[in-house]
Amino acid sequence: MKTNARTKLLTAWLCSWALTINLIAQPVEDVIEIRSYNLKPGSRSQFQKIFTNEALPLLKKWKVEVVSYGASLHDENSFFLARAYTNLNHRQESQNAFYGSDDWVKGPREAVLALVENYTTMVIPRKQFTINSNSTEMDDREKLSKLNALFIKNFIAQDTVTHNEIIHKDFVCIEGNGKIANRNEYMQAWATDYQNGKFTAFSITDEHIRIFGNMALVRAKSVFTRLQNGKEVSGTSLYTDTYIKENDRWWCVQAQITPIK
Description:
With about 260 residues, this protein is an alpha+beta fold.
C-alpha cells in the first residue's frame, strides 16, 4: 500500500513537472521587438533616408510587420525600429530569413551598417505596447517623404500637371527675397523656373519631418548647380513646406525658401 501510494505520488509529481516544463517551453505569443540604433554623429538624416527608401520596402516585401520607426527625441543620433511577431520562434525565423537574404545582403545592408555604431534590442509582450497613434504617424511620415521627393521631381521636370495635384487651393510661397506668391503666380512660374534658373543639377538632403495632428512641417536642404555668367556655380537653400491633411490626404499649403550664403 505504501509503495503504491508513493508510486502514485511520484507519478503525479512527474506529470506536474512535465506540464510545467511544457508550459515554459511554449513560445510567448504576440511580441514586439524594439531596436534602438546609436548612429554615427550627423548621420541620422542619411540613415533615415536609406531606411525609408530601401530597408522599409524590403521589410514589407518579406512580410515583416513594422509597427513604428523614427528618430528619437532625446538626442540627434538615435533611431528606433519596432517590429511585431506572433511569438519568439517566429521572430527568430523571420530575422534569420530576412538578414540572410540576398535582398538584404546585396541591398542596403552595407550602407546601413556603415552608419551604425551599435544597437540594443528589447522584446516585450504586445499587450504592453500601445502604439496605434504612432502607427498612423509612421504611414504619414512615409507619405510626406514621398511627396517631398515628388515635389523636387516636379520642379526638375517642370511638371505642372502632377504638381497641381499636391498643391492646396489656398497655397502661398514665401520666396527667398521675401516676396509672397499666390497659387496662380507660383504655378505659372513652375512651368519654366528650372530652365530659366539655368540649373544643371538639383537634389535634396537633410530631410526632417515633424507631424502635429493634421499639420506637418517638411524641412530639407536643396543642393544645386547653375550657370552664372557662363560658369557653373554651386548653391544651397533651406526650405520648409507646410502640409495639412484633409480627407486623409496631405496637401502642401505653404512653402518657404531661405537661401544659405
